[in-house]
Amino acid sequence: MSNLDLRPVPTPCGGRGDVPGGPVRELLPAKNVPLGESTVVRRLLPSMGRRMVGAWCFVDHYGPDDIADEPGMQVPPHPHTGLQTVSWLHDGEILHRDSLGSAQTLRPGQLGLMTSGRGIAHSEESPREHAPLLHGAQLWVALPEAHRHTAPAWEHHAELPRVTGGKGLAATVLMGELAGVASPATAYTPLVGADVSLAAGTSARLPVDPDFEYAVLTMSGEVEADGVRLAPGSMLYLGCGRTELPLRTSVDSAFMLLGGEPFEERIVMWWNFVGRGHDEIVRAREEWMSGPARFGEVHGYDGARLAAPALPPVPLKPRGRVR
Fold this sequence. Notes:
Layout: E1 11-13, E2 23-28, E3 31-35, E4 39-45, E5 56-66, E6 74-80, E7 83-91, E8 94-98, E9 103-106, E10 111-115, E11 120-125, E12 133-142, E13 153-157, E14 162-164, E15 169-178, E16 181-182, E17 191-198, E18 203-207, E19 213-220, E20 223-225, E21 228-230, E22 235-239, E23 244-248, E24 253-260, E25 267-270, E26 273-275, H1 278-290
Antiparallel strand pairs: 1-25, 2-22, 3-4, 4-5, 5-12, 6-11, 7-10, 7-12, 8-9, 8-11, 10-13, 14-15, 15-16, 15-17, 17-24, 18-23, 19-22, 19-24, 20-21, 20-23, 25-26
C-alpha cells in the first residue's frame, strides 16, 4: 500500500534509546488519510508519540466501508524500497499486481506479503466485481541492513497457523511466532503479527515475549487489553517486559497483536521508501521518476502510475524512535 500524501513528512525511526524497559499503556492517536478515490484510512503508526513497534514502522486501518456502489480501493502503481508490506483483510478483496508479474486477489484470512528489498512497484485495487464491505489493515516492516537490498519477492499465504488459548480465544499467526506457533511467512527480524479473535464474555491471558515491545490494534468489537478499553481503530502501545497480556471483552471482538525486538538501526521513512539517509532517498525518488529500470513496470492496472511528491527543502536525517 502507498502513502499517497502529496506532502509526506520525513519520519526518522529506530534505535533503542527511547524504548521503555517495562510495561506501559500508551494510546496512539490516529490520523485520517485519504487513500485513492474513495478510501480513507486511519494512520496509527508512525504517530506523534511513537514511530515503531519492533520492526513494524507503518500501520493503516481502514473500514469497514460500504463500497457496494463505490470503486473501493484504487491505488495506482507506486514504488517501495527497504521494507515489507503486509496486507490483511477482514472483509472484501484486494487485487495485488507488482513488477515481478504477480497478480493475486487477496481475501479475508489470507496474507499478502511483499518484500521490496532494493526496489519494487505494485498496485492495489478492489476488483471490478467486489464484496459490499472493505475492512482491513496495511502494515510495513522495516528491513534490517543485512537484508534491505535483497531481491524483491511476493508471497501469498492462503493458509496460516492458529493458536487457541482456551475457551473464547483464537489467533492466526501472520508473521513470526506466537505461543510456539510459527508463520511460514518470511521475516528478517524477530517479530510477531497475529490476528486475535475473542468471543463475547472471554477473559484470557495471552503469553508474550518479555524481550519484545508490543501494541494492540482493535479491528472490531471492544477489546480490553491490560485494563484499557479499545474501540475499533484504536491502537495501544504496551512497551516491553511482559510475559502475558490480560484480555477481556463483553462482545465478539478482534484485534491485531504487533510486536518484536526493538529495532536497533536508525532509519528514515519518506513517501514509500525506507532508507538510512537523505542521499539514498533522493536517489530512489529520481530513479522512480526516470523510468522502470530499478523498480520495473506493473502491467494490467488501468491508469497511470503515481508521481513522487517533491522532497522537503531540508536534508532527511535518521534519528530516534519517538518525536
